[in-house]
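Q: Trace token order:
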Amino acid sequence: MDEIVFFAEGVPAPQGSKTHVGGGRLVESSRRVGPWRDTVRAAAIRALGGRPPRTGPLEVWLRFIMPRPKSHLRRGRAQTDGWRLLPFAPRQHTGKPDVDKLVRAVLDALTGACWCDDAQVVAVHGEKGYAYRGAPTPGVYVIIRPAVALPCVDCGRSTYGYTQTADGPLCADCALGDELADEDEDDEES
């Protein structure tokens, strides 16, 4: 399979809004997003190894590793390996920045390097979490692969967004029809 897989090291920065500064110019509201996009783009270009940007529909998986605050870690002798978490330390990163803004910054950085047009990205899977022993360095893990849509078991159309059934995937239209049929059966039983 023609996947692009890489890790971009650094503290993930969100793609915020832009501010109008006059003369038709827009400026990023975050000063950190420009260097972060440069870091992600450089890591992607290294991973591509001189290959051209992809064409066709693509799926993107993003796993953001956020730095853990020192207040989450034990101090002194109890912290023998640097990753002795306090009992109250959260496992998931539920604070700012929002995952959708982190995703937007990475997708903007990869346009022109991994794909020609960001409209080619038909599915995005994004998540964020704190650094941990298995992934101690902040950054983002990226997997880009061609989008393969399975055929719907009822009508045969492609199922990019689908409902999984025991028989196989259903496209959105057939899944809606299946739900309506289930409701009709429930009405007949009562």
Observations:
- The beta strands are 4-9, 18-22, 25-28, 58-66, 121-130, 139-146, 163-164, 169-170.
- The two ends are 51 Å apart (CA to CA).
- The chain has a mean pLDDT of 81.
- Residues 151 and 158 are 5 Å apart (CA to CA).
